[in-house]
Specification:
With 108 residues, the protein is an alpha+beta fold. The chain is 33% helix and 19% strand. The strands form two sheets. The protein has a four-stranded mixed beta sheet, covered by helices on one side. The longest helix is centred in the N-terminal third of the chain and has 13 residues. The chain is elongated.
């Protein structure tokens, strides 16, 4: 059972409603943890980041800017990279974060 996309938007709006208009919230994702030279531990996303985005990739940052005209939800994430995706698996990239996770804007 997955959580519908509008639920994440509601969660972000609820958090921003409790913030001052000229404030900013910066929520980083978890990082991958290296087990040995070429082995990683299983990735576990930061609970706060996952609760607000549903985005389960490392090296990402959610920025909430209440009152911003161009969009209040901005995500910074890894770019798509065909070579790395062979080894590490699929990446959504900035375009996918907007299309699949409801970010107003996304940047690498």
């Amino acid at each position: 059972m997955s959580i519908p996309l509008p639920e994440y938007s509601l969660r972000r709006r609820a958090l921003m409603a409790s913030m001052a208009v000229d404030s900013i919230a910066i929520i980083p994702s978890s990082e991958e943890k290296i087990r040995s030279r070429d082995t990683h531990f299983s990735f576990r996303q930061d609970s706060d980041f996952l609760y607000l985005t549903g985005f389960n990739e490392p090296q990402a940052v959610l920025v909430l800017l209440p009152g911003r005209e161009a969009g209040a939800c901005v995500v910074f994430c890894r770019e798509r990279n065909a070579e790395r995706e062979i080894w590490d698996g699929f990446r959504y990239g900035p375009e996918g974060v907007c299309a699949h996770f409801g970010a107003d804007e996304a940047f690498p």
